[in-house]
Design goal:
The complex is a heterodimer of chains A (310) and B (316).
Chain A: H1 2-13, H2 19-47, H3 51-57, H4 69-77, H5 79-111, H6 118-130, H7 135-145, H8 152-156, H9 163-176, H10 179-187, H11 192-203, H12 205-220, H13 224-229, H14 239-260, H15 262-270, H16 274-309
Chain B: H1 3-6, H2 10-41, H3 58-64, H4 79-112, H5 116-127, H6 134-145, H7 151-158, H8 173-198, H9 202-210, H10 215-226, H11 228-240, H12 247-252, H13 261-264, H14 267-278, H15 281-309
The chains are: A mainly alpha (310), B mainly alpha (316).
């Protein structure tokens, strides 16, 4: 009897780590988690720091004084900022809608075992994951053959299709849509498109949400396409690229202030101030930070599915 | 039954069905043809001295430009090339190994936490950086390193020390880039492994416990073997991308600072800069082509090796 209970107790110990080990786990994971969010919190603090405090003690978690000056500046900046904020939203919404439609339409026949050219189109998409023409040929063809230059299309079209998302979507079809359902619909005389829209799409809503979120994030965070394709028409520049250029311009002034003279340094001080730049970063991260707790679940699901099956 | 009379026209309806399905894949297929397959033919630029002719259209220029053989690959002999290849490979190898270790360790720790709420909170916080762009991250880094007001130089000054000019001093960049890389991707990678670990049948642990295996032994003999396939798949994908660098990280985070090139120049930034600064299409195409070919060979190679060792874990 005694031996039995001793064995039971030991058994319980074998099922989870000791309290001390658990504490170490909490410490390691907790510290790293903090490290992940602290830079953003720091930037928020800087955006509310007065210019005076920045000049005195630099960026600090505990500034001498706070100020909303940066945000007042942001509103003074007016057109340029709101225009690029609008551009970011416009590109993200339009791009997401189009890319989700293309993704669902491409992935659905790949899931249909009775589709004759299934393998062909599967490989057509997969091959591009392991081989590509490289940056420059792609860029030149997009620009001079397809006319993707200084227009919204240049910031949307190159991201419309993603083989990884096709795999994610196809897996969602495979795991949640039974073939019998489609066969039954076909026997009932339902056309291919109406089967897809009326029967299949409602079932794979979580998959569509996942792909939509992955796409929306890709469009929202996009700056490389602007770097490549925007040369003259800066009216369509998204917020990410505005932020990137702002850094470069301020740096340019800082680097050359000794050559141009003190006046330029003074002028540089009048230009977008330090806290203003950080306020813009807050503006760009805020939509993500707000939506994040809601979409995290879907994105995790999608990424897990895609990487395991991919 | 409705289906019976249709039986006769099965062949026709099948052809019709395939046609309808073809119209569905059409938008994606056209996109792939124009934006992925057409550029693959564009790689002939790598073997030509591309320049403008009349009429100045892309195809006309390509056809009329003269062949130069492997002249565009002459950049391989320059010392810059050795540096960028070394950087790309060293960073990637370090990050693959470090990333694997950290992600697996974190996933195991998270799965073993008894406080599920805390585990969820850690996961949420760690995943956050994955959703931010490198442009945003570059401002985060700037907040700490900016030469005039960044936190670290400011602290150095307040202590009477000489402030480090981070954007002109190569010393710290291998470490900074490594931290940035792990900061952004650890949450993602550990969530992938966590999903695999949660999927393990709990009876395996119970059986091990009955046999007297300690928790550490269970991790070694139950958890790790169960996620082996996943580790191998993710490794294949990483090794396949070993010649590709994270352009945004290497371009934005060091602020495109020229004095940092010795430790921040990688193949991707080299190709971009070669084109952006000199418009040397032949040479940048050649570098890009080489990168694609070697990367492709790497994937096929690792996949073949894995097929020999463990056929169930192959990618294709």
């Amino acid at each position: 009897m005694i031996a039995h209970s001793v064995k039971r107790r030991r058994h319980a110990d074998l099922n989870s780590f000791s309290a001390r080990t658990q504490a170490v786990f909490h410490l390691v994971l907790g510290l790293f988690s903090l490290l992940c969010v602290i830079p953003f919190i720091f930037v928020v603090i800087i955006s509310f720091t007065s210019e005076e405090s920045i000049r005195q003690i630099g960026y600090s978690f505990v500034p001498q004084s706070f100020s909303v000056q940066a945000y007042e500046y942001v509103f003074d900046l007016g057109d340029a900022l709101w225009r690029s904020y609008f551009n970011s939203f416009y590109i993200t919404i339009l791009g997401t809608v189009l890319s989700v439609i293309i993704c669902v339409l491409y992935a659905y026949p790949l899931f249909r075992k009775d589709f004759k050219y299934r393998n062909f189109f599967n490989y057509m998409s997969f091959i591009t994951m392991i081989f590509g023409g490289g940056l420059v040929p792609t860029f030149v063809i997009c620009k001079s053959v397809l006319g993707l230059s200084d227009n919204y299309a240049a910031l949307i079209v190159p991201l419309l299709f993603n083989p990884f998302n096709i795999i994610v979507m196809r897996t969602f079809f495979q795991t949640s849509v039974p073939m019998e359902l489609i066969e039954a619909a076909t026997i009932d005389g339902s056309g291919e498109y109406s089967t897809l829209v009326r029967i299949v799409v409602p079932i794979v809503k979580p998959g569509i949400a996942t792909v939509a979120l992955l796409n929306a994030l890709a469009f929202w965070n996009e700056w490389f396409l602007s770097l490549l394709y925007l040369n003259k028409n800066m009216d369509i520049m998204p917020l990410q690229y505005l932020l990137m250029r702002m850094q470069r311009n301020a740096d340019f002034l800082a680097k050359n202030s000794s050559i141009i003279g003190v006046d330029a340094a003074l002028a540089a001080r009048e230009l977008p101030s330090q806290s203003l730049k950080m306020a813009l970063v807050v503006f760009i991260v805020l939509p993500i930070a707000c939506a994040y707790p809601f979409f995290q679940r879907y994105v995790v699901a999608g990424l897990t599915v895609g990487s395991v099956k991919g | 039954m409705k289906a019976a009379p249709r039986h006769a026209s099965m062949g026709l309806s099948r052809r019709k069905k395939n046609l309808w399905l073809l119209t569905m894949v059409a938008p994606g297929a056209i996109w792939l043809l124009l934006l992925r397959y057409l550029p693959m033919f564009g790689v002939v630029i790598a073997f030509k001295k591309y320049r403008a002719f009349k009429p100045n259209t892309f195809w006309n220029n390509i056809v009329k430009s003269e062949w130069v053989g492997l002249d565009n690959f002459a950049f391989l002999k320059s010392p810059d090339t050795a540096v960028m290849i070394r950087n790309t490979l060293l960073y990637n190898i370090t990050w693959i190994l470090l990333g694997l270790f950290i992600a697996v360790a974190f996933a195991i720790m998270m799965s073993e936490l008894r406080n599920r709420f805390a585990a969820k909170a850690y996961q949420t916080m760690m995943f956050f950086p994955y959703f931010l762009s490198w442009v945003v991250a570059s401002y985060f880094v700037l907040a700490f390193l900016d030469p005039t007001s960044g936190m670290i130089p400011a602290i150095q000054k307040s202590m009477g020390l000489k402030a480090t000019n981070f954007y002109h001093d190569v010393t710290w960049w291998p470490l900074i880039l490594t931290i940035c890389n792990r900061w952004k991707y650890t949450g993602y990678a550990s969530v992938l492994y966590l999903a695999a670990i949660t999927g393990i049948d709990s009876t395996q642990y119970e059986a091990a416990a009955v046999d007297g295996a300690t928790k550490w032994q269970q991790i070694w003999h139950v958890t790790l073997p169960n996620i082996r396939t996943m580790i191998i798949i993710l490794l294949i994908m990483d090794v396949g991308k070993i010649f590709n660098a994270d352009f945004g990280l290497f371009y934005n985070v060091p602020q495109n600072s020229g004095s940092l090139y010795p430790v921040t120049q990688v193949i991707d930034t080299y190709v971009y800069r070669a084109y952006a600064n000199t418009h040397n299409m032949g040479m940048s195409s050649a570098a890009g082509l080489l990168q694609s070919v070697v990367g492709c060979l790497c994937i096929i190679g690792t996949n073949a090796i894995v097929r020999k060792i463990d056929p169930d874990s192959t990618l294709f």
